[in-house]
């Protein structure tokens, strides 16, 4: 059990900062595309701007849907979330030309904090393969105590600095910020769910697990 604690207001503020950080880029791209449409008369340029707006809007929507479950209240206390819905949200967030997601979990209802933990562990796994690759989600156990094993394989896959510490609830000497708060929050969720979350190298792959 971690001896470190964080004020609830600070935790909320840092999580909000993390969400804003994720959304700034696609929303900014939409604004840039609209400005081009207003100023340009060239049809080729306008077509490019429209494609930029469509792609960036889809990205912003996917990020919002993911963050709503991963960081938000996602229903009332004690609510359950369909794992199938979590899969749909995760595919929208992670899958692109460089990254593919293999989802091997059974469809079932799980307590919302356990699903939030799953999505947060997926974020950690995704960040370990910045150049893309394959993310595979496998079950550990079954039923209400279902755990997860997430394997991230890709070029130069590596564990991001301080993530093991942050998962364990120990921020170390550096202050928590919008980047470091996410793995720390994943650790909080794991302890709330009474499971052990960990991260380790398995050959050239990164494995993030909760059981």
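Sequence proposed for the structure above (211 residues):
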């Amino acid at each position: 059990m971690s001896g470190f604690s964080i004020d609830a207001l600070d935790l909320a503020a840092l999580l909000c900062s993390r969400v804003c950080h994720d959304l700034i880029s696609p929303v900014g791209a939409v604004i840039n595309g609209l400005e081009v449409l207003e100023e340009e008369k060239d049809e080729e340029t306008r077509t490019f701007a429209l494609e930029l707006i469509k792609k960036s809007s889809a990205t912003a929507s996917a990020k919002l849907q993911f963050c709503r479950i991963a960081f938000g209240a996602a229903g009332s206390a004690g609510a359950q979330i369909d794992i199938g819905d979590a899969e749909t949200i995760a595919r929208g967030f992670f899958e692109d030309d460089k990254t593919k997601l293999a989802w091997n979990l059974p469809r079932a209802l799980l307590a919302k904090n356990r699903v939030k933990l799953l999505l947060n562990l997926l974020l950690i796994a995704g960040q370990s393969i910045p150049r893309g690759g394959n993310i595979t989600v496998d079950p550990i156990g079954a039923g209400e105590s279902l755990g997860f094993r997430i394997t991230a394989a890709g070029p130069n896959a590596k564990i991001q600095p301080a993530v093991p510490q942050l998962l364990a609830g120990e921020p170390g000497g550096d202050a928590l910020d919008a980047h470091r708060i996410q793995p720390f929050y994943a650790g909080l969720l794991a302890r709330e769910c009474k499971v052990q979350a960990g991260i380790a190298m398995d050959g050239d792959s990164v494995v993030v697990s909760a059981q």
